[in-house]
Design goal:
The chain has two helices and six strands. It is α+β, with helices and mostly antiparallel strands. The chain has one domain (2-112). Strands 1, 2, 3, 4, 5 and 6 form a six-stranded mixed β-sheet that branches.
Amino acid sequence: MIYIINRASDHFIKKESPCEEAVLRPFENWQERSCTEEYFNEHYSQRLGLWRSKGINHTTTLDGNIIRQIEDKLLYIIDINTLEDLHKLIDKYGTLIIDNGDSINKTPTITIYDDYME
């Protein structure tokens, strides 16, 4: 299974690969705004341009938010296929935080907990 991997200590600045097993890979990057396209264009177009002036695949979510695909993001990933692989990673790097991704990008994430984070 593919996981996005990062370090708690690199929260604000991505310095380098979070671990030697990680590989850099492009991921779809989506923007979501909790408003209608009309509201966005009326209130933010002076500063940010019209909603459809950037990105592709403009659409609306079921709850009425607007989303668009923008330039891909380069993210570090790791492939973990067994519990043994996961335990090896824990033995090597210590505490890991695993979550199921965000509302748009459903790829699960592993964070190497090497620094305080909330």
